[in-house]
Amino acid sequence: MHETIRAVRELRKRLGDSQQAFATRLGISIRAVGNYENSRVPKSARALSSLVRAAKSADQPQLAQIFEHALAAEMGKGSWEFVDLAEHRLKLARLRFLDDVRNSIPFAKRALADALDAELLEISKLLESANPFNSKEDSE
After folding, report:
1. Are 63 and 55 within 8 A, CB to CB?
2. What pLDDT does 77 receive?
3. d(CA 36, CA 9)
4. Closest to 60 in 3D by CA, of 3, 4, 15, 9
5. What is the DSSP code string of 37-78?
6. What pLDDT is attached to residue 72?
7. In the chain, domain spans
8. C-alpha closest to that of 83 among 55, 111, 123
């Protein structure tokens, strides 16, 4: 039996998933899970990437490595260094996104405070103009 086929079945069992739950977790059809477990080696880069992530999240590095090698072979690479590069790029993108969010919060607070100040000033002007006891004629 092909190593990847064995690894698919082993990962599903270690996760304690039914074939349906495993298919949902990976975003593939239940038929594909059955095929992968019984005879057909996963060839879809999307399915293999999902298997890599599932194995890593289940703390199964040996199974993740099997899926990474299959993914590298499917992508036509001689090694799976591109997987590490993709993970690195994803981490950098997440960090950049978090930095952008953190940096935009003070600006959003300032813009909100400025808008509130302007609205309060406008309301106070309306109140002053509507107050019958606050006329210029009385002050003279």
Report:
1. yes
2. 55
3. 8
4. 15
5. HHTPPP--HHHHHHHHHHHHHTT-HHHHHHHHHHHHHHTT-S
6. 78
7. 3-74, 81-134
8. 55
- Within 8 A by CB and 6+ apart from 16, the residues are none
Q: Which of 71, 104, 63 is nearest to 87 (CA)?
A: 71
Cα 107 versus chain centre, distance: 25
CB-facing half-sphere around the CA of 4: CA atoms within 13 A: 22
Tell me the C-alpha distance between 108 and 76, whole Å.
Answer: 46
pTM as predicted:
0.51
> How far, in Å, CA of 60 to CA of 93, rounded?
25
> What is the mean pLDDT, run by run of 10 residues, along the chain of 140 residues?
82 92 88 85 78 89 87 66 67 77 76 81 74 54
Is residue 48 within 8 Å of residue 67, measured between CB atoms? yes
Q: Can you give the pLDDT at residue 123?
A: 78
CATH number of 3-74: 1.10.260.40
